[in-house]
Design brief:
heterodimer; A: alpha+beta; Alpha-Beta Plaits; globular; B: alpha+beta; two-stranded antiparallel sheet
């Protein structure tokens, strides 16, 4: 029997089930817990929080989650790997050290991965000729220089591997790829070579399956959602990895949810582009090589994954201010619910026009009718109610504010049987746009700091 | 050969998400014998036509015969992308369902196991 390791998924995004990681480390055997907190928008939110308070800028759920698990982590020597450090992994580490102190736990080794945050280096980089051009539009980052909120490089598995090698039990990173969190312990435990591309790809595929938490163990499963047992107590996925790169996806016994070839297929196809070129900092994985096999109840074998060498670039995710937006809703009831909502929309747009307000976009949707399907929505004979949802986006904050003031008056000055305005006037919020770019790997160096309390 | 009109959801399931302003829709055959139907029926042109008024850019199709699945990228679909979009479904989560509403004509023999 080969030595294998069990890597549990504990979090699929910042805002996921708070108790999921605790369940993963207490309901059955695991060796590693990976927790993914970062979406594209998350770094900009964290950067803003750090501006207001230099002690913040990380996933604030994390220290509390770790504190609750800590006695179990120490007792069973379970290692935690997470990118919840956001734009302030050191502050996150210190918060966890404080929790350990409170519990009288000494000798806890925490590793931190930094160097991904290039916000302060943008001028230096562009001066060196690194354009950080937008991967979609091709424009140089200097176009939005004065509006940038955050800028982070996506690191892969290797800085985490280094922290593991130095004996860290908890590893907190900034912007690390979701897949690197799962690949790293495999490289560390199995001693895989840097250029063993098939195994790099195998660990990367396992990472893609774990990175969205319950979405691979029965959550959001369109195949046959009614057949998924006990979603209330869904068990998050666990990857049981073997040195040859074979991975079994499973979950703890006596938990809800479902791990089947069909649930794994849905997750494999989630947010991918060209399946032959799934590019990460560690390798290029070929999703058309993956072989899936049901090996028992809630147990799927993932094998035969092929990979190719990594590219010379890291991906950069920057975010920048791009105006303001606001949106609000009103609910119209039978009779003629949809007709009334459409009339209200026309009246509101006429008033916005009369006021001379300018927006980059005004979008009207009828929730309950077409907000998901647009022109594909079927026209029903008679609907009971519909929610008018209208939003605006523009450069002028005053104009967006005024839109918010014009919505509520429709209740007394528009079509009848209207309700649902408990939330007050829609307020303008900052629009944060996303700037994807590439940077030569030679231009950035990850820093790994391991300390013991 | 007699044909039968079915909805894509009868022979496939799907998952969708966002990639910037593009949506990705993975369509998976419910049984491997349905994969050739997906290959034949879900052409780029057909999918582009289906999403008229939703997808305003190019449609790309990728084949994953190992999973009995196709992956579609619908460019210029999400109103500027996740953080900018005013749409209720700014992340394209329900594009999967929208795809599965498509009606297709299939030879009856192909549907029988």
């Amino acid at each position: 029997m080969n030595k294998s390791i069990r890597i549990a998924s504990g979090q699929g995004f910042w805002g996921d089930l708070i108790d999921a990681p605790y369940q993963q480390v207490t309901r059955g055997p695991v060796d590693y817990l990976m927790m993914d907190f970062l979406a594209e928008v998350t770094m900009s939110i964290m950067q803003k929080q750090k501006l207001r308070n230099p002690e913040l800028g990380y996933a604030r759920d994390l220290p509390g989650q770790v504190a609750r698990m800590l006695p179990h982590l120490v007792e069973k020597n379970i290692k935690v790997i997470t990118n919840g450090g956001g734009v302030n992994p050191l502050a996150c580490r210190d918060a966890i050290f404080r929790e350990a102190e409170k519990q009288g736990i000494k000798g806890l080794k925490i590793g931190v991965v930094m160097g991904d945050d290039i916000l302060e280096r943008i001028d230096e980089l562009t001066a060196e000729g690194i354009e950080l051009a937008n991967m979609e539009s091709g424009g140089p980052i200097t176009d939005i220089r004065d509006r940038i909120v955050s800028a982070n490089v996506y690191f892969g598995a290797y800085p985490i591997v280094e922290a593991l090698r130095q004996g860290a039990q908890i590893i907190i990173t900034g912007r690390t790829t979701d897949t690197g969190l799962t690949l790293a312990p495999m490289i560390h435990e199995f001693g895989w070579a840097r250029d063993d591309w098939d195994r790099m790809a195998a660990g990367t595929v396992a990472g893609h399956i774990l990175e969205c938490g319950g979405q691979s163990s029965g959550g959001n499963f369109l195949g046959d959602w009614k057949s998924v047992p006990d979603l209330a107590h869904i068990g998050f996925p666990i990857a049981e990895a073997f040195p040859d790169g074979t991975v079994f996806i499973t979950k703890h016994e006596h938990t809800g949810g479902l791990v089947s070839v069909a649930t794994i297929k849905e997750q494999l196809l989630y947010e991918i582009g060209d399946p032959r070129e799934y590019i990460t900092p560690d390798c290029v994985a070929d999703f058309t090589s993956i072989r899936l096999q049901q090996e028992g109840e809630n147990r799927v074998r993932v094998s035969d994954v092929k990979g190719r060498p990594d590219t010379p670039f890291f991906k950069v995710s920057a975010s920048y201010h791009d105006g303001y937006s606001a949106s609000g809703t009103l609910t119209y009831a039978w009779p003629d619910a949809l007709e009334k909502a459409r009339a209200a929309d026309r009246i509101l747009r006429t008033r916005l026009d009369d006021l001379g307000l300018h927006f980059d976009e005004i979008l009207t949707e009828f929730v309950g009718h077409d907000s998901c399907f647009g022109p594909l929505a079927h026209m029903p004979e008679e609907i009971n109610e519909v929610v008018l949802r209208i939003g605006v986006r523009g450069k002028d904050r005053e104009h967006v504010t005024r839109f918010g003031q014009e919505l509520a008056p429709l209740i007394l000055t528009g079509p009848p049987s209207v309700t649902g305005f408990a939330g007050g006037r829609p307020k303008p919020s900052d629009v944060i746009a996303y700037w994807p770019a590439l940077i030569p790997k030679t231009a950035v160096t990850p820093q790994v700091i391991v300390e013991e309390n | 050969m007699a044909t039968k009109r079915i909805r894509l959801i009868d022979i496939a399931h799907a998952r969708s998400g966002d990639k910037g302003d593009a949506g990705n829709v993975g369509v998976i055959a419910r049984d491997e014998r349905f994969y050739p139907i997906l290959l034949e029926q879900l052409t780029v042109e057909r999918v582009k036509h289906h999403f008229a008024g939703i997808c305003f850019g190019e449609v790309e199709r990728f084949e994953l015969p190992n999973l009995g699945a196709l992956n579609f990228i619908l460019h210029n679909t999400l109103g500027g992308g996740g953080t900018v979009s005013l749409k209720n479904d700014a992340q394209g989560k329900t594009l999967s369902s929208a795809m599965l509403r498509m009606e297709i004509d299939v030879e009856e023999g192909l549907l029988q196991g």
